[in-house]
Design brief:
This protein has 462 residues and is an alpha/beta fold. It has helices at residues 13-24, 51-57, 59-62, 64-73, 134-144, 158-169, 185-189, 193-196, 200-215, 265-269, 310-327, 333-346, 350-356, 361-364, 380-388, 394-401, 414-425, 429-432, 446-450, and strands spanning 2-9, 29-32, 77-79, 82-87, 92-97, 102-112, 116-118, 131-133, 151-156, 176-179, 220-221, 224-230, 237-242, 245-250, 253-258, 260-262, 274-277, 282-285, 298-300, 371-373, 378-379. The longest helix is centred in the last third of the chain and has 18 residues, at 310-327.
Length: 462
């Protein structure tokens, strides 16, 4: 079994930056990445995307090329198509490679750089064919350069406008944007504007996108509520209230988005402490000022530590690697102070964005007839009924209903199940907590378990 100074899970901006910095400090580093090539979600296909398509995705996306090139040239061992399915308390990591076999590696320090997932957006009709997330639409743009031009974007958040703008540049502008931001929310967010001006480039970018969409005639319906996706065997229309008026838009595609939340599966598996982040409306791991969890030697870099975006993710990755280098006898204190100052400036925009684009109440605590757990087809009403029968939290609801026991292991329902239980019991969300995560983190074949002691076939990155 191989042993490394540092093992990094994920090769997005945080994982790549951490690997570069760790290697620069002489640490023996391995990177396990579920994707076939580095980049993560934000820089997906960054090494192979054609220039014309990259221009559509924007300069921020293109900036990932240099990061990926530096990552490829550093001394870290990179294992692509590696799915981590268990981690023992002694930081023994079990992973499979391209479904062809399992392997193990141990590390003195573990960096979890698995990023974020889109917040679940349960609503009537969200399981119909033709409904996806805004992030999935962006993946299609990166992979193919264009998507269906008959798409209605529904929800809130910067990504919703970014995807709409990228669709517009690709020649497939969305049919409409149905935004759930309530009237008056901008006024609430305005108190954070002075601080947000420290990261003015983000504000300028957002305003530019909105102007382009407005000039192109893309309709935006604000203060939307009572949203329902209609259809029998596929999406046919989106129905909603906007500023008190009923609307119905016929469409064959819907992109949902209510922001992103940390991917907490691995930190939960390792029993790291978590707390509820009121501003981001999600659970985040409890970390010290250098992103070490309550489990010694386990660090979180990037959006898994709390949502900050690609720039902050890379800075956090560097900071984590410097902290690990310091624990291994290197003096990185001066560099750490520089990175922390850059991180504080980049994060100045977050309070404004988190207030303005807070997730809608309807998506956080959906109505009784709305399906919450897609894997086991469990509705919000069934969860509330389980609470009435005596289930105090998500794990007991899981025992009653199998909610959270499907292939996604609770990723698509965990946060919603917790908020429903908290609302129904009139308790604080932190008191209700989250599912207890157990291995395997991802489905794997019995043949992969059987081959765990053998050396797997190495997968060459694409």
């Amino acid at each position: 079994m191989k042993t490394h100074d540092v093992a990094i899970i994920g090769a997005g901006p945080a994982g790549m930056a951490a690997a570069i910095e760790a290697s620069r400090n002489g640490l023996n580093t391995i990177v396990l990445d579920e994707n076939p090539a580095p980049g993560g979600q934000i820089y997906r296909s960054i090494e192979t995307v054609p220039d014309q398509r990259a221009a559509i995705l924007g300069p921020e996306y293109i900036s990932g090329r240099s990061l990926a090139a530096d990552f490829r040239s550093c001394s870290a061992e990179y294992v692509a198509a590696a799915t981590v399915w268990n981690i023992d308390p002694g930081l023994q990591i079990h992973y499979s490679i391209a479904g062809k076999g399992s392997a193990q590696v141990t590390a003195g320090s573990l960096v979890i750089a698995t990023g974020a997932i889109e917040r679940p957006t349960p609503m009537p009709g969200w399981t119909l064919p033709g409904v996806t997330t805004a992030g999935a639409l962006q993946v299609l743009l990166k992979a193919q350069g264009a998507i269906n031009d008959d798409v209605v974007l529904v929800g809130s958040g910067p990504l919703l406008y970014l995807v709409a703008d990228q669709m517009l540049k690709a020649g497939n502008a969305p049919k409409a944007i149905v935004e759930t931001v309530p009237s008056g929310q901008l006024l609430k967010a305005a108190r954070h504007l002075p601080k947000a001006l420290k990261a003015f480039s983000y504000l300028r970018k957002g305003l530019s996108m909105m102007r382009r969409l407005n000039k192109a005639g893309v309709p935006v319906y604000g203060d939307a509520s009572s949203i329902a996706i209609e259809g029998t065997n596929k999406v046919e229309a989106v129905r909603f209230l906007s500023k008190g008026k009923q609307h119905r838009i016929e469409t064959t595609g819907v992109g949902l988005h209510q922001g992103v939340i940390p991917n907490q599966q691995i930190t939960r598996l390792l029993r790291c402490e978590h707390h509820w982040h009121d501003s981001q409306q999600c659970f985040v791991p409890a970390l010290d000022d250098r992103f070490e969890t309550t489990v010694e030697g386990v660090f979180v870099a990037g959006d898994g530590a709390g949502i900050g975006g690609a720039v902050s993710a890379a800075l956090r990755g560097r900071l984590v690697a410097m902290r690990i280098a310091e624990k291994n006898g290197r003096d990185t204190r001066s560099e750490q102070r520089t990175i922390q100052a850059q991180l504080a400036q980049d994060a100045a925009i977050r309070p404004f964005l988190e207030t303005l684009y807070a997730p809608s109440v309807e998506s956080m605590v959906p109505a009784d007839d709305v399906m919450v757990c897609r894997c086991e087809e469990i509705t919000a009403g069934q969860i509330r009924h389980a609470v009435d029968l005596g289930a105090p939290g998500p794990n007991q609801v899981k025992s009653y209903l199998r909610c959270g026991m499907g292939p996604c292991q609770g990723r698509m329902c965990g946060t919603t199940a917790t908020t429903i239980i908290a609302e129904h019991r009139q308790k604080e969300i932190e008191e209700i907590d989250y599912y207890r995560i157990r291995p395997p983190l991802k489905p794997l074949a019995l043949s992969e378990l059987a081959s765990i002691d053998s050396e797997p076939t190495r997968h060459t990155p694409l």
